[in-house]
Amino acid sequence: MARPSRVSGRFLSRSTALGLRAVLLAAVLAVSAGAQSPPAASGPAAFAHVTALSQQIGSRPAGSPAFVHATEYVTEQFQRLGYRVETQTFPFQFFDETEPPELMMLTPLEVSLHPATMLYSTPTPKDGVEAELADVGLGREEDLRGKRLDGKVALAQRGQIRFAQKASFAAAAGASAIIIINNQLGPAQTGTLLEPSRIPVVMVPYDEGLRLGAWLAAGPVRVRLVVRTVTEQRTSVNVIGIKPGTTAPAEVVVVGAHLDSVPLSPGANDNASGVATVLEVARLLAEVPTARSIHFVAFGAEELGLVGSGYYVATRTLSVRGMVNLDMVGHGAQLLVSNSAGRGELLGIAEQAAGRLGIHVQRMSFGSSDHESFEKAGIPVVFIHTGDDNAYHTPQDVSSRIDPQLLAQAASLAAAVVLDIAR
Ligand code: BES
Ligand code: ZN
Questions:
Q1: Is the pLDDT of residue 124 over 90?
Q2: Contact 50, 330 (CB under 8 A)
Q3: Regarding the domain delimited by 109-220, which CATH topology (the fold level of the hierarchy) does it fall under?
Q4: pLDDT at residue 340 in the model
Q5: At the fourth CATH level, which superfamily is domain 29-94+233-422?
Q6: Ligand 2: centre distance to CA 258 (Å)
Q7: Burial of residue 272 (number of CB atoms within 10 Å: 0-12, 13-18, 19+)
Q8: What is the number of the ligand closest to the CA of 326?
Q9: Would you kindly state where each structural domain of the chain is located, as residue ranges?
Q10: Looking at ligand 1, which residue's alpha carbon is closest to its atom 16?
Q11: Given ligand 1 and candidates 368, 370, 372, 383, which is best to mutate, with the most ligand atoms within 8 Å of its CB?
Q12: Minimal CA–CA distance to 383: which of 209, 222, 256, 237?
């Protein structure tokens, strides 16, 4: 749903004396830690991982053979750096599209449209559904109250409530399927319904949705929609590269990124960029001893509802002292930092680290990702990202749009935050 929401900036005010003391302490630490300072981050090294994951391996939805290849790639990278690798297996509801969806306007004239299927959409019957369209506004409860859709296909705008809620209100009113109109330019984007829906759910690009709405305002519109999907129980994995702590090995700092993509998207920014950055952080810290342990984690099944990170948190045996999440760090103007609970702790550490490194960051929140699984358990987190991208969750999310310099900045920043907590 990726609705932008500016996190209210709560900057801690300190007395000048305290500030001076902090600067002095940092200087002393920096000198004493001189020998252990990590090497500089490499944009090209990180970018090579983006190419491998998004181009050579390609789209890698959880439960697919490509996802398994991606886990093998990450495992090999961790092992090359000298880390022990643990693989956690967990169950999840696998979702796949056997063929792209089809949507045709039949009357008042024949036009073929470009829909994207929402994850966990139920399929249509084999020959599709053919019915009249019905405008349902935003598809909220109040938009549908008392409406009888009698097998019509609902046409709803994106926004304000979850896709799944629109689908369930439309289904309750008797719709046979629902088409959601994207609210930004570019291709139709997929996204998760979190669980199987009662009726098929697709999105159409903004311009196509506007045209459908205009035709519908002028008279009846008939459409045919074909959606071919399967949902079944499967397993996926988290891949963990482990660096044991020297003096407090039972305490761990997590730096992670989701490895899965949505179907039909190469997932270069979402989220080969984040995994590439985690691998670069792992390289930077390979020779740096830390008091606490570090887990470098490639999470599975994020796109279906943060499943892998939820499993990691639910089954943890070590005390997790902080989590740095990297999701979509390769396309945009600058790095952004946020966390949904608005806990200042790690945000402040990240901002200070960025200041030391000369990296420009701003507090801004976008989307929903694996750090939320940790936040729910009360663990301090920082989410590093580059904000919205109208190509994410589409076939256009390719590596040529990725900026190696942003990857290098994200790696330097994440490594600095991890060292601050794990040292
Ligand atoms: N990478 C996105 C989240 C995101 C979007 C981060 C925009 C930065 C900018 C993530 O993979 C995703 O798609 N999240 C879903 C929800 C999640 C529970 C599947 C989302 O935000 O809609
Ligand atoms: Zn995503």
A1: yes
A2: yes
A3: Glucose Oxidase; domain 1 (3.50.30)
A4: 80
A5: Zn peptidases (3.40.630.10)
A6: 9
A7: buried
A8: 1
A9: 29-94+233-422, 109-220
A10: 368
A11: 368
A12: 256
